[in-house]
Amino acid sequence: MSLNNDSSNEKNLVLALIAGEEDAYRRIINTYRKPVLRLCNGFTGSSEDAEDLAQDIFIEVFNSINKFKARSSLSTWIYRIAVNKSLNYIRDRKKRKYEMYSPSGDMDNDSHQADSPDYRLMQKDHAYALHNAIDSLPAAQRTAFILNKYDDLKYAEIAEIMNTSISSVESLLFRAKRNLQKRLHDYYRKNLK
Q1: Which residues contact 5 (CB under 8 A, 6 or more apart)?
Q2: Same domain for 86 and 13?
Q3: Could you list the residue range(s) of the whole structural domain that residue 133 is in?
Q4: 95 by DSSP, 3-state: which?
């Protein structure tokens, strides 16, 4: 999702939301649902939790739209709400279950291996390790990493959402990747002997 929206369309959309127009609510959800879900899933690791969290985020957007001051784009404002709600959710729920997905591509092009229960269990364990490693990152590193890798946002967009500089985002991503490499290296060294 690009954070660059036509400002006149955005202004009209905000005014329609403030006026309580039902079509405006639908447009917001249709436009931002997938990116918000992707972001929430990056933080929670669970599609059910992401759905619940996304609902809370859109309720917050609708309840707070009259506070939107247009100092940033509407999408940046929605992302900030999503990041803050996601971080609060993570803080509030120390123990959570992860719903893991096997990778979309078959690494060995061997459909028999991908169908085996052992292979699926191994993939689930790897995904769990990845989510644990991401969850163990400091909040700013985790946020920058998820916005970059899950939502494929550019550094400038992440900087705007996180209210920081591009160089800070670069530094956060560098440290996040280094920390993830270390944690995942330790995991794979222990589990793939």
Answers
A1: 73, 74, 75
A2: yes
A3: 111-191
A4: coil
Helices (runs of H) and strands (runs of E) counted in the chain: 9, 0
- CATH number of residue 33's parent domain: 1.10.1740.10
SS3 assignment, position 85? helix
Instruction: Tell me the C-alpha distance between 63 and 18, whole Å.
Output: 9
Q: Is residue 104 part of a domain?
A: no
Question: Could you give the CA distance from residue 173 to residue 188 in angstroms, rounded to a whole number?
Answer: 22
117 and 80 fall within a common domain: no
Mean pLDDT for back-to-back runs of 10 residues, the chain (193 residues): 59 87 91 93 88 93 88 89 88 51 42 58 71 87 90 90 93 93 79 62
How many angstroms separate the CA atoms of 45 and 139, rounded? Answer: 15
Residue 48 placed within a domain = yes
How far apart, in whole angstroms, are the C-alpha atoms of residue 44 and residue 160?
23
